[in-house]
Amino acid sequence: MIVADWTFASWNASFAESPIMEFLYAVENGTYKFAPQLMRGSSKSEEDLVRLAAKVPWEEGAREDVIPPEFWKGALTLILTGNADQVRRYAVLAWRAPRANLDDFLASFYERLKSSPHYSEIKILNPDSI
Q1: What is the mean pLDDT, run by run of 10 residues, along the chain of 130 residues?
Q2: CA–CA distance from 122 to each of 23, 42, 47 (Å)?
Q3: Model-level pTM greater than 0.85?
């Protein structure tokens, strides 16, 4: 079963642009249980991170406080595959100056992430990184 988490709906973007988090559950002993083994992915190479960072469509001339939702979609992709330890490197590769402060943005992003009703599952996926 796939469970959608709308924690980032309308956060710093329109609802239509907002990335959603999806969590996988499998039947175990007659009930659905979170299935981290179905979500985990291998660690990304530097080349993979560069490719992921290149997908962020920074608009020339956009207001400095406008961060494309694809930016945090990339971070969520890493987190939801158990690779939260690579978010910082991805963020540094993807970030474009003279935008808002990266550290401030990431602090806000992680505060929002902590409000997820599935935060315990996120921590299971990333036991040493979240």
Answers
A1: 97 94 96 97 97 90 77 97 98 81 93 98 94
A2: 9, 16, 25
A3: yes
